[in-house]
Amino acid sequence: MYSFFYVVAMSKELIKFLEQFITEERLTQFNKILENRTKYITIALEDIYQSQNASAVLRTSECFGLQNINIIENRNEYQLNPDVVQGSSKWLNLIKYNNSENNTLESIKNLKAGGYRIIATTPHSNDINLEDFDIEKGKFALFFGTEGTGLSDVMMKNADEYLRIPMYGFTESYNISVSAAIILQHLVHKLRNSDIKWQLSDSEIDELKLDWHKKSIKSSSMLIDTFLSKKRNN
Q1: pLDDT, tens digit, for every residue of 144-180?
Q2: Which pLDDT belongs to residue 75?
């Protein structure tokens, strides 16, 4: 079994090897985007079935620099609309929950184990106005519910906090993609102007670099095999 330090060193060597097959412009773009990527905020989508809304949330999340998106499939399968998502899903980590008896509980358990606060984005008797939401209490996962019925009772009972977007008209709620955009615009701006260490760690950056390099190079698997073969023979 290889040591942790050997694996890290090998990963860095492999990244350097693959960089020769990527343009300087692309590498510069990767580095700039990675500087602004974060896992401090994550999104969880529960049973979203309208592909247009699902894809719009992914595209918005990627634009705001989020990396991890949690997909919960209890009754509805998550569908993407290529015309809306515009390739954004390629650069995100989509974490799917669809194998448990209750995938919502499984996602909450997993996120809490990762240190995330569970935030239900819906009006509630103990809700917090978006303007007053405290980002400094730790990482948080924003849960969005299905169109029409919203978040499940299970999710609501297991939420740590409830977040409300101020509204001033007759309509009771925003479209889910609009809700996500409003919340992320406010909280990401607040986060980036705080003293919180919200950026990715060095190991997380290397992991994404390697993944993005592989996705950007044709026949990358063949090149990697060649690299590993040379390493074994040295």
Answers
A1: 998 778 899 999 999 999 999 988 887 777 888 999 9
A2: 83
Say if residues 131 and 166 touch (Cβ distance below 8 Å): yes
What are the structure tokens assigned to 24, written together? 């300087």
In 3D, which of 59, 66, 60, 61 has the Cα closest to residue 87?
Answer: 59
pTM comes to 0.90
- The continuous run of DSSP H or E covering 8 comes out as helix 4-19
Report which of 163, 176, 55, 158 is spatially closest to residue 106, judged by C-alpha positions: 158
Enumerate helices (H) and strands (E) in the chain, giving the number of each: 9, 7
Q: List, in order of start, the domains of the chain with CATH numbers.
A: 37-203 (3.40.1280.10)
Helices (H), 20-65: 24-35, 51-63
